[in-house]
Amino acid sequence: MKSLTDxxxxxxxxxxxxxxxxxxxxxxxxxxxxxxxxxxxxxxxxHADRTDMPFVTLDPAASxxxxxxxxxxxxxxxxxxxxxxxxVAWFVGDGDAIDxxxxxxxxxxxxxxGKAGLYPPVIAxxxxxxLPDGPHPAVIFTVRVAQDGAATLDGAERAIIKSRAKxxxxxxxPADVPAGFAEMARRVAANEQARGASRVDPPEQEVERLxxxxxxLSFRPILQSEQDNAAxxxxxxxxxxxxxxxxxxxxxxxxxxxDAFKVQRLRNAAQALGLSWPASASLxxxxxxxxxxxPRQAALMLExxxxxxxxxxxxxxxxxxxxxxxxxxxxxxxTAPLRxxxxxxxxRCALAIANGQPVPQAVTDAFAGLPKVxxxxxxxxxxxNHAAIDLAEAVMxxxxxxxxxxxxxxxxxxxxxxxxxxxxxxxxxxxxxxVRQGDGLTLKLVSADPDQRSIVFETA
Length: 460
Known about the structure:
The protein is of the alpha+beta class. It has helices at about 10-20, 30-40, 95-105, 120-125, 180-195, 225-245, 260-270, 285, 295-305, 340-355, 360-395; strands at about 1-5, 50, 55-60, 70-75, 80-85, 110, 115, 135-145, 150-160, 165-170, 205-210, 215-220, 250-255, 310-315, 405-415, 415-420, 425-430, 440-450, 455-460.
């Protein structure tokens, strides 16, 4: 984790340039804001009163667009997850100004100095957000989690809820969350292992704005509280996906795994990094043993992620089982409708089939067009994130041109090798030959240009 000194405001200037280059929306059109203001005043009248249920939220401390709240209870040997998802569809109508703008965006875009939301703040951070200032409307999915971690959808209803607490990943204590939270996460993780899933989260390069207005660049590991919370979303998303598949409808998240050539290349990478990968162990089994706290293992985890085919969206097709290789299951996105357009329609679909009602035609029609819209939005979000990281690296290093740095080779690429600096969270590509993954290098910084978001090293 490194702080960025930026007295000349190069980072702020560069972030503004990124917003322009990638057409990041700045606010909302007047008609959308007017529609959102009116929608935020809409009084829920199709919702059961569930304000007596002890819901809480668990998110990054600074988050205000809260999609999910949860409550847990026992049912014999099973655990019941009552997962409240923000009822965005209550505030957004098919084809209205808010809806049209959301289709143009696809998802929320995040930058270190702020975000461009999918919906206006009066909805996303106000009327629809499951903040503890409620009550707020939600769709409660009741998910039954068996002792072996298998999750099934027991029911769904529109309801008014009131969150009891806004918990944060970095400060939550075991006593803060409902009883059964840790056990449910354990069951879901055990089920992942039993079915051969390979959902492994390596540390990610991240630029963060601090409370004092400065920035830092870091490799951020996933906290245990974050992993446990993700298990709730995973259980709900899988249960909803299974229910949609059984009813021959839905929109699914699909992904293919690395082909045989890439798996062999990953084995070579493990060997170069000095890691022991038994010949009898599949990629799926081996990567679950990797420790992101070990720099060599973290490097391999990142390479495994890069080797995948990439996830996409797929509407239901007769005779086709939508498959997500990393999840080793049929999977859907339903739990973040304030941040992803597709989730709003999946929630509506699951609510209908759980109550024996036909899926609205507008939802079925949307499933056909969403893969292209979400694919474009995902690609744009990734480009924005990469540009921000490149900018931060250039700002961090601009005053150190001519200095030498220790680095490790993490991958062989077409342009040379990808390296990770030893003493700061910087990744770069360097022209080099005759080296292997895991080798150490001494590099000289030739240039660092924040305006071009580029850094250039050469072997010293």
